[in-house]
Automatic annotation (TrEMBL):
<dbReference type="Pfam" id="PF00034">
    <property type="entry name" value="Cytochrom_C"/>
</dbReference>
<keyword id="KW-1003">Cell membrane</keyword>
<dbReference type="Pfam" id="PF13442">
    <property type="entry name" value="Cytochrome_CBB3"/>
</dbReference>
<keyword id="KW-0679">Respiratory chain</keyword>
<keyword id="KW-0472">Membrane</keyword>
<dbReference type="InterPro" id="IPR009056">
    <property type="entry name" value="Cyt_c-like_dom"/>
</dbReference>
<keyword id="KW-0349">Heme</keyword>
<feature type="binding site" description="covalent">
    <location>
        <position position="63"/>
    </location>
    <ligand>
        <name>heme c 1</name>
    </ligand>
</feature>
<keyword id="KW-0813">Transport</keyword>
<feature type="binding site" description="covalent">
    <location>
        <position position="157"/>
    </location>
    <ligand>
        <name>heme c 2</name>
    </ligand>
</feature>
<protein>
    <recommendedName>
        <fullName>Cytochrome bc1 complex cytochrome c subunit</fullName>
        <ecNumber>7.1.1.8</ecNumber>
    </recommendedName>
</protein>
<dbReference type="InterPro" id="IPR009152">
    <property type="entry name" value="bc1_cytC-su"/>
</dbReference>
<keyword id="KW-0479">Metal-binding</keyword>
<dbReference type="GO" id="GO:0005506">
    <property type="term" value="F:iron ion binding"/>
</dbReference>
<feature type="domain" description="Cytochrome c">
    <location>
        <begin position="47"/>
        <end position="126"/>
    </location>
</feature>
<keyword id="KW-0408">Iron</keyword>
<keyword id="KW-0677">Repeat</keyword>
Length: 261
């Protein structure tokens, strides 16, 4: 009888079984690693929020109340989000040194880690704007588009050069020179003081990045014409010329006339 010959091929069922085993092994390993990383991140976030709660109770609850629900002296922080805390505390505006028309920037009272912990705690109280992702803070956006967006949405208060300006009742729009990009973004999404909120439907995250790029351009390229008088605009600069330059001409004219007599 002829001898049966081996073909050297696996059974189709064996190939399917090996494929299933490989997928299960890979998927199981990935799930294990992902679960471990997620658990670690969640644990770290919870620890940070707990630290933030302790800091809040020691430094903020006297005004904002237990649980940050607000008092007659300060508003509720429920739902303001981490971005609002990072802006207000990270610029030194909070805690306020004294009551006034608006909170002003001053030396920061907490470390970066403490600011992030306070922000993490407030974020657990209700949904609100988060601290922006680094990709929107690089200053590498479209400068021309950012300049246009800034002129349309911001220049009426902050001046076209970001030099700031006066508002009503002792309030003001602050100078934006050398402001941290994260704080610029957070101000747009939280609307601190008298500033309106520019959510992602008004100005997209990418457009916010373009505005930041424009402000970074202004920081890196000071006025090429020399003294810019603070970039306060043609009215104030024209007034300066009228009073001092024209005044100097008149004074020299009077002096020359007096000498000729």
């Amino acid at each position: 009888m002829p001898r049966s010959r081996r073909t050297g091929r696996r059974s189709p069922l064996a190939s399917v079984a090996l494929l299933v085993i490989g997928l299960l092994t890979t998927g199981g390993a990935y799930a294990l690693v992902t679960s471990s990383a997620t658990a670690s991140t969640t644990s770290a976030s919870a620890t940070t929020a707990e630290e933030g709660e302790k800091l809040f109770m020691a430094n903020c609850a006297s005004c904002h109340g237990i649980g940050a629900v607000g008092t007659t002296d300060a508003p509720s922080l429920v739902g303001v989000g981490a971005a609002a805390v990072d802006f207000q505390v990270g610029t030194g505006r909070m805690p306020m040194a004294a009551s006034g028309p608006q909170a002003e920037a001053k030396p920061v009272q907490f470390t970066d880690e403490q600011v992030k912990a306070l922000a993490a705690y407030v974020a657990t109280l209700g949904e609100g704007p988060a601290i922006p992702a680094d990709e929107f803070l690089t200053g590498e956006g479209d400068v021309a588009l950012g300049a246009e967006l800034f002129r349309i949405n911001c220049a009426m208060c902050h001046n076209v050069a970001g030099a700031g300006g006066a508002l009503t009742e002792g309030k003001f729009a602050p100078d934006l020179k050398d402001v941290d990009p994260a704080h610029v973004y957070e101000a747009m999404v939280t609307g601190p003081q008298n500033m309106p909120v520019f959510n992602d439907l008004n100005i997209t995250p990418e457009e916010k990045a373009d505005i930041i790029a424009y402000l970074e351009y202004l920081n890196d390229h000071p006025s090429p014409g020399g003294l810019d008088l603070g970039g306060l605009g043609p009215v104030s600069e024209g007034l300066f010329v009228w009073i001092f330059a024209l005044g100097a001409i008149v004074a020299v004219t009077v002096w020359l006339t007096a000498k000729s007599n």
